[in-house]
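Async update (no meeting this week)

Hi team, since we skipped the sync, here's where things stand on the single-chain job. The sequence we agreed to prioritize is pasted below, unchanged from the tracker. I ran it this morning and attached the output directly underneath so nobody has to dig for it. Comments welcome in thread, and please keep replies under the output.
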Amino acid sequence: MITKLANRSLLKISGRDAQAFLQSQFTNDINNIDPKSLNINAYCQHQGKVIAIVWVFMKDNAFYISLPSDVRDIVIAKLNIFKMMSDVIIEDLSSQINQYGLINENIEKSLNIVNNLSLFTTRKSISVNNDYNLWEKGCIENNLPEINLKTSEIFIPQALNLDVNELGVSFTKGCYPGQEVVARMHYLGNPKRRIFQFVSEFEPVIGDSINVKDSKSLKSSGVVIRVANIDEKYHLMATFEINHINDLIYLNNDMNKPITIVNA
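Output:
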């Protein structure tokens, strides 16, 4: 299946200092980028909260960043602040290059994201399946998190499972914004929240809360970060309190809207 990712932007990062610059900004090891796959990263603020999850790949001696369009301006502004006098050029190629999400497809020069999901970029238009919900469901099933404007600067990378098998965080690469907080949690703490998948008969939107009756959290027990509507059923990805995976779970603090966890 091929879906156009019309809600994603694409930045080109070039210049003599591009690689070292990105290495200092993102959570994963840019120096280990594989030509056949992309590098999943969190871009954090100083408290370790994730501003955006970005996909980084390399082509023709330049780096490219694929990211949700609604956090594009925030990411560009932050990159411009940190580049200072570095030889780094940031270009927005979103209107020039199309991005396509592939599920179980083999297209030459596509880049593996995780498991059966890949990214293909081209200046041409190609035939696609226009049901974006199928792509979202594929991402949910593969535990691939996303952050948009509603959920930006809320979670540390561990709450998004980015530390699991170092999917999006390297703990040996060196410094980046928020690195001390992220490393401290890794070495000294245990995350109270992780990503889980849910199904619901009630319509959620990104940023909705997931609650349990007995949670002691001052905030909601969970937050919805991805949604797919398939066959009149809603598939959700949410960060959720690990201690409550066996409790009665409901949407938006409404006990008349129970939802079911599917991968506890």
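Quick observations from my side:
The chain is about 15% helix and 35% strand.
The chain has two domains: 2-141, 151-261.
Reply here if anything looks off.
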